[in-house]
Amino acid sequence: MPDEPVREVVRRSKRADIPGLQVLFRESFGNDRPAEVWEWKYFANPRGHASFVCDAGGRIVAHCAGLPVKFRDFDRTFTAYASVDFMSSPSWAGGVGGGGVFVRTVRRFYADCCGAGGSPLLYGFPGERHRVLGERLLGYRPVEVVNELRLEPRGSGGGVEPLTAKHLPLFCRVPLSIGLERDDAYLRWRYLEHPTFRYGAVVVRGLFGRATIGAIIREGDDGVIHLMEVGGAFSRGNVATLVDVLGRLGKPVVGWGSPRNAIGRLLVDEGFSVTPRDHHLEVRLFYERATPREGEMYYTLGDYDVF
């Protein structure tokens, strides 16, 4: 008798899927991700998750997920999803076509979590291949090319403090029209509870030692300091002082941001250079609105670097 076809089931992920997700991630991207990061990212997130797999006879052959975040769209706030870990096995037949496991897995995510009764918006930062697939098959719309902001060293003597809970209120203070609202619950999970990375804070203090503006950073193995977040009072003088301190950390400081955004413009004016990268900021809308214009939607490297 011919072999029976393997039955494919699209369902929500569970903790028992972590080993299979590790295999799929390695097959899709060529990198390993520790089990504790999968646990933190999906199953220890205080806001929950929307993570879906295609299970083919016990083998995970596709996955897509959204991390729920508090999102502002001018005077409207709601739960949006940051789309992450969209992948399918390159060795599984029919993986990424219009009727393949990848698209069917994402459409199950849409049906269960988005639209009427669910989230009105997804956003993400796909590379070129996934950008094309997302726009052609999944309804994503391009907002802008992601820009890298880079500050070259200007000396030494800058100070970094270990990031603690006492710093978090500063980074909840970000003026934005459209984008992820940084609040204590998000920042605590995102930075303080990360199982493998340790983050630092660069803080500018004013009268009586009161913090006025600051940055969350992570020193990478690639010889640069990753600028994850900025927060506080964004006057031109405060930003100039913060950039001066960052410039004295002794290594290049690299983040993401739009030079058309008000905060991005301030950083560029004070010396950050701008280089377009091979990622795009994209949105999938489930309500009536125009696609955000360039610079209108606020993002940082922290929106993306969840690994």
**Mind telling me the C-alpha Rg?**
20 Å
Number of strands: 14
CATH class call of the largest domain: Alpha Beta
CATH architecture of the largest domain: 3-Layer(aba) Sandwich
Number of helices: 9
Poorly predicted ranges = none
Order of helices and strands: EHHEEEHEHEEHEHEEEHEHEEH
Task: Please give the alpha-carbon distance between the first and last residues.
Answer: 46 Å
Structural class designation: alpha+beta
- Provide the residue-averaged pLDDT: 93
| Beta-strand proportion | 25-35%
Biggest pleated sheet: 14 strands, mixed
Determine the fraction of residues in helical runs and give it as a percent range.
25-40%
Q: Tell me the count of domains.
A: 2
CATH topology of the largest domain: Aminopeptidase
Give the full name of the CATH homologous superfamily of the largest domain. Answer: Gcn5-related N-acetyltransferase (GNAT)
Coarse shape:
globular
Characterization of the model:
With about 300 residues, the protein is of the alpha+beta class. The chain has 2 domains: about 110 residues, Gcn5-related N-acetyltransferase (GNAT) (Aminopeptidase, 3-Layer(aba) Sandwich); about 130 residues, Gcn5-related N-acetyltransferase (GNAT) (Aminopeptidase, 3-Layer(aba) Sandwich), CATH 3.40.630. Helices cover about 25% and strands about 35% of the residues. It is built from 9 helices and 14 strands. The N and C termini lie far apart (about 45 Å).
Short description:
The chain has 307 residues and is α+β, with helices and mostly antiparallel strands.
